[in-house]
Each structure stands twice: as C-alpha cells, then as structure tokens.
Design goal:
The protein is an alpha/beta fold. It folds into 3 domains: 105 residues, Nucleotidyltransferase, domain 5; 184 residues, Exopolyphosphatase. Domain 2 (Nucleotidyltransferase, domain 5, 2-Layer Sandwich); 200 residues, Hypothetical protein af1432, CATH 1.10.3210.10. It contains 21 helices and 14 strands. The chain has a 6-stranded mixed sheet with strand order 8-7-6-9-11-10, sandwiched between helices. Strands 3-2-1-4-5 form a 5-stranded mixed sheet, sandwiched between helices. α5 crosses α10 and α12 runs parallel beside α15. The N and C termini lie far apart (59 Å). About 1% of the residues have low confidence.
Length: 505
C-alpha cells in the first residue's frame, strides 16, 4: 500500500485541502479540509502571509495523517490568484521553511483547464450534454472562467474578472453606503459580462454546466452522482429571496441554514443568473466535480488522457489567437511541421523535454501575430500581445517562454544586451534561446511564404547540421534568409547549419 498512495495538498486563499489517493485507480482513500481562512483584506483575495500560522498548523496535521498512511509521495499545489511573482516567492519560501514542503503555484488558467479536463474525461454525461453547444462556467474566488464546447470539442474560453470573494467584498463595501447594494452589484456584473454577449452562441440546443458552486451542488446533485439538473423556477425563487437581505435568513424551502451561512451564495447566484440570461441555455446543470478533482486526476498523477485533453485546449487557444490576428495559416503550418521535426531529430543536442516541444508548437502558431499591428518590428508586437493574452492550461512561465520565443524568432537575438532576455530567470533563458534558434532557422526556410520545400532531411556531421531541402522551385530567397538567420543556431548550439538544395517534389 505504501508505494501505491499519493498525497495531494491544495492551498487556496480561503481553505487548504488534503486528498490521499490510490494509484492508478484514483480511488480516494481520505479527503479532509481545513476550516475557512480570513480573506479579502486590503482588496486582495490571496492573503497567504496573514494566514500563515493557520496554514502551517493545518499542514502539520496533514503530515501526521499522511504518515499514518505511510505515504512518501506528497504533491503540494497552491492557487496563484491575485498575487504577484515576488509575493508568491516569499510565501513559497516561508512554507518551505515552516513545513519542509515545496509548493507549486498554479494560475487560474491551469486550474480551470485541469478541472474542465476532468469533466470532459470523467463525467459520463459529458458526451451527450456537449452534443450541440455546451458552456462550462467555473466560478473562482477572484475570477471565473467560461469555456465553450461544440460537438464535444473545446473551442474557446474567456477569463472573467468576477469571482465569489471579489463580489462578496464589493457587496460588503457597498452596504456601508447604500441600503440595497444588490442592484448596483447586478449592474457591475452586467458591465463585466456585457462584452461577451456578441461572442456567445445562442441556440435552441445549448447546455450550461456550473462548476465550483458548492451550495447549488449540494441542493441539486444526488448522492453518488456527479451532476444534477437545476430547476430553473426554484433557482429564480431562491435568487429573488437572496436579493432581499432579511429573506436570506428565513429558513424556508428555498434557503436552508447551511446555504444562508455561505457568504458566497449570493455572488454565485448573481453570476450564474446573469450568465444564464446571456447564454439562454435550454438546460442548466451543476456539477460537484471540483478543482481538487482536476488536480488529483491530471497534474498529480500525470494522467495521459487528462494531459492530452489539456494540451488540445492549449493548441485550440493558440489557433484562436492566430485566427484573431489574421496570421498566414499555410506558413504557420509549414513552420510548425518542420520545427517539430527539428526538435525531434535534434534531441541529443537540445536535451529539452516534450513539454518544450508543445511550447515550440504553440510558438510556431502565433509568432507572427504582431504583423496585425505593424510588419516592422512585428516580433516585438507578437511578444506583448502574447503577454497580454495568456493561454488556458499554461503556467505563467510557459506563457512567458512562448512570448519570448516569438520575440526572438526573427531578427533580435536573446543576448545579455536584450533587456527582456537579461531579466528572465536563469532556468528559462537557455530553453528560450534553444527554441528561438530552432524556430528562426525553420522560419527562414519559408521566407517567400510559398512553401516551396516539400521535404527536409537533417544530418549532424563534423560539427555541422546538414539540412537537405527538397524543392521543385528555386530557393534563392530562402537561402539568403537562411544565411542571415542561422547564426543564432550556431551561437546557441555551437553547430553550424548548412543548407543544401535537392531538386524534386
């Protein structure tokens, strides 16, 4: 039993969880959680430093339980929420000193991708519910995520600046200045969601699933089930009672005592009601599958199926960005195809993991989006567009790597003279340089944007990389571009690329 158990600890601003699971079945052996922590001070949801004593006390209790089960494998994750990188480093170091455990921070895009992938892979009803149009609304503390699936396939997602703790904090602030703050809150929520209206698909056969709304899940999901349909009339009746503060504490058929004490119940109902008005789904469901389920299934266990689902979300997000900024898909497909060939055949010299292969694939899709702003210096424009549009499923570091690879795929080189490169963490400087060198080399082979090359063969020989390109057209422009852009590869790997043309189709 000792070698088959894994302990997963997940810290979010208001609570910390422990789940002991059996591998590979993912059977839950024990599932415990702390009491609620105080959050929302100084207009911040994540107040980990102020709650440090309570957090460490709970972790010490968790460690005793973990020891009782003789578990050696402990995974420790935390919700990044609204922290900055410096604060995250401070908190992480304090936790390591006090508990001996190293935390891995997960941003909202990672958490939502993991929890939604669990719904896709593990919810038996998903295939039927997503047969036409399906929206999944995942409500967080500081922000929420809305994902759209069409015919069972992920199509797009939106991160929304609305979360349970954030709205609760605003309600409390407004109560000090107005007798009925809910009207103002509804207008506030409407202003945050209004921009989505033109992008949302309103069809007769549209389903909406709500996630991370415990009060609704408790009410509508039967025991031993993972999902339940929300009675729309009862939902509206409860919602109307919640809008009147004194009604919230009248324990009738609409609101039970446990719901009345849930400080996020009104914020959740407000967001769900407004989103439902925008989408107008024919059916509304709530699931009790949580972020902890997603973490346990995906990140902690390195589940191949779950990771494949997340990776497809990442690729689709990249395609959406590329489409939005009007990139040349023929050129992008060419660059992606051969960049991945270079990556695979040059593993002995770059020594990067398959995760970097995915980042290279994404960078090849989006490296030219800066042309939408201006062709001159487009690589710089690509970088800051990507920095402002983090992709679902990727860490902050992953998104940064993709942006920096896009920055250096064309003309500028990742050297100490470049301020962006100089300020990168040392751990990612070399991966950025290696991926940029590969991408720049491949990009030069389609400088005409005509995909003249039909086949590429690679061979490492005597400190040189021989690139044999088969083409029925002349490669004068490509050869010139190759000579201009190949120096970075030589600088990074110490291997001189040599382009040789071969006639053929």
């Amino acid at each position: 039993m000792k070698n088959s158990l894994t302990a997963v600890i997940y810290l979010q601003p208001d609570q910390i969880f422990l789940r002991i699971i059996k591998l590979p079945s993912l059977k839950v052996v024990n599932d415990v959680r702390s009491g609620l922590f105080a959050i929302g001070e100084d207009n911040k949801t994540a107040n980990y430093r102020k709650n440090m004593a309570a957090i460490t006390d709970n972790i010490e209790g968790f460690k005793e339980l973990i020891s009782d089960y003789q578990v050696d494998d402990i995974k420790f994750y935390g919700a990044y929420e609204d922290m900055d990188s410096v604060t995250a480093s401070y908190v992480g170091d304090q936790l390591k000193v006090r508990t001996g455990l190293k935390i891995e921070w997960l941003n909202n895009n990672q958490l939502m991708a993991q929890s939604m992938s669990y719904i896709v892979d593990q919810l038996p009803e998903f295939k039927n519910l997503s047969k036409h149009c399906l929206y999944i609304l995942s409500i967080g503390l500081d922000s929420s995520t809305l994902a759209f699936f069409h015919h069972g396939n992920f199509e797009t997602s939106w991160e929304i600046d609305l979360g349970g703790a954030q709205i609760h904090r605003l309600v409390n602030q407004l109560r000090q200045t107005t007798t009925n703050p809910t009207e103002i809150i509804q207008d506030y929520i409407g202003s945050k969601l209004g921009y989505l209206a033109p992008e949302l698909t309103r069809q007769k056969k549209t389903t909406m699933i709500v996630q991370n709304a415990p009060s609704l899940a408790k009410r509508y999901v039967d025991k031993h089930q993972k999902i339940g349909e929300i009675d729309r009339q009862k939902f509206r009746e409860t919602f109307n009672h919640l809008l009147i503060p004194q009604d919230r504490y009248m324990y009738n058929n609409d609101i039970d005592p446990t719901e009345a004490q849930d400080e996020y119940i009104l914020p959740n109902y407000l967001v769900i009601a407004r989103m439902s008005d925008l989408i107008n789904p024919s059916s509304l469901y709530v699931t009790n599958l949580s972020i902890m389920d997603g973490i346990s299934n995906g990140i902690a266990t390195a589940n191949d199926v779950s990771q494949a689902t997340v990776n497809n979300m990442i690729r689709t997000s990249a395609d959406n960005i590329a489409k939005r900024y009007g990139i040349d898909f023929n050129h992008a497909d060419f660059v992606k195809k051969y960049a991945l060939q270079f990556f695979d055949e040059l593993r002995p010299i770059h020594r990067l993991s398959n995760h970097y292969r995915l980042l290279l694939e994404v960078a090849a899709k989006v490296d030219d989006i800066g042309n939408f702003i201006n062709q001159q210096g487009h690589y710089r424009h690509s970088a800051y567009i990507l920095e402002a549009n983090p992709m679902i499923g990727l860490s902050n570091e992953d998104n940064l790597i993709i942006a920096e690879v896009a920055r250096y795929h064309s003309t500028e080189s990742p050297t100490i003279d470049q301020s962006h490169y100089r300020h990168l963490d040392e751990d990612i400087q070399m991966p950025v340089a290696k991926l940029a060198a590969i991408l720049r080399l491949v990009d030069s082979l389609d400088d005409s944007r005509q995909q003249k090359i039909s086949r590429i063969q690679l061979k490492l020989k005597n400190g040189r990389l021989i690139i044999k390109a088969t083409s029925s057209d002349d490669l004068v422009l490509e050869s010139w571009s190759f000579s201009q852009k190949s120096q970075l590869f030589d600088d990074v790997f110490g291997i001189k690329p040599v382009l040789k043309e071969k006639e053929g189709r």
